[in-house]
Specification:
Radius of gyration: 14 Å
Number of domains: 1
CATH class: Alpha Beta
CATH architecture: 3-Layer(aba) Sandwich
Helix content: 25-40%
Order of helices and strands: EHHEEEHEHEE
Distance between the termini: 26 Å
Amino acid sequence: MTIAFESPDQPDVIALIADLDAYQDTLYPPESRHVLDIASLKQSNVLFAVARDSEGKAIGCGAIVLNPDFGELKRMYVSPRGRGQGVARKLMAMLESRAIEWGCKSLKLETGPYQHEALALYASAGYERRGPFGDYADDPLSVFMQKHIVA
């Protein structure tokens, strides 16, 4: 497996993100889904990482949107065939490391209460629950978390 910072507008990465969207469509109504499209993921303040298997196929991705005061973890996803191999942890570690290099001191995220594996992963990686941040409204279908990161 390899992980690298790549452009999100590649066919296999677009398909991976479409799988994530289809999965979330089964869990939450549109008004409770706070996603970034491909164009947003290509902005200069976004770090976008892709995990690829030994055949070079995209099996996971994640992004951090760098804001003036914090970074926001977005679009974390590992395909079913990539799960159980530590892909999500490695993606998060690489994203966090690069965010630190950019001077980021804390990371925040919004996820949903029905994504039990994601909640467990984030908690085990040091993220703690908090209230809404940024433009997010308080929503029973949102769970907000944060982690302080330092060099």
